[in-house]
Amino acid sequence: MKILSPRVLRALERFNDAHPWDHNAHYHRWTLRQLPKRFERALDVGSGSGDLARLMAARAGTVRAVDSDPVITGNAERLTPSGLPVTFTLGDASTQLPAGPYDVITCVATIHHLPFSPALTDLRLRLAPGGTLVIVGLFRAQTLADHLLGIVAIPANVAMGWLKNKGRPAPRPVSMTAPTRAADMTFADIVSEARAVLPGARLRRWLFWRYTLVWKQPCVTRDGRPLSP
Fold first, then answer.
1. Which of 43, 57, 73, 160 could cross-link 102 (Cys pair, CB 3.0–4.6 Å)?
2. Which residues form the domain of 199?
């Protein structure tokens, strides 16, 4: 199903190139609202520029931030004040995540690079009893509702780019060297697989071609036994 013409898509791409803004960072404040006011250990998977890790550090005892891109990870380290309890680690999220347990795990625009259900299982196993997992991800538009939401996002995207850059073309941010990947799962498939791994997970589609997932680790097993930390 194609609703937007290639000409419109090219025009939008040119505007975004001249007025860039971080679609993922747009959801950082929302992510923080899903987390406890204070927590001891946090893990940020696919930490990128480190903005979310630095925000979480104001509430956390320690934050481990992991990303596979050496250039953007190095820049994130340079931008982080020495007093903040954030440690940046260069690593592959599918094989090199630091051991838990964590009270909070966040994962922004990263999980579509990974095998979805195994990645959710891995994150669940690293989450402490009562811990919170928050994911901001990308999905492939399939339904009419998906495409209509994308159409609504276009003028909002232009307005955000204009306002954040005060109408002026902006310098390009530090570019990632890690390969990018388009989302290949539909929102319906994401919901189905997520709830099989994380029963009771809350999922929602948002503007700017994103969805969110929030899940809290139970403190006891289904038969009433306490979970091991």
1. 43
2. 25-139+182-216
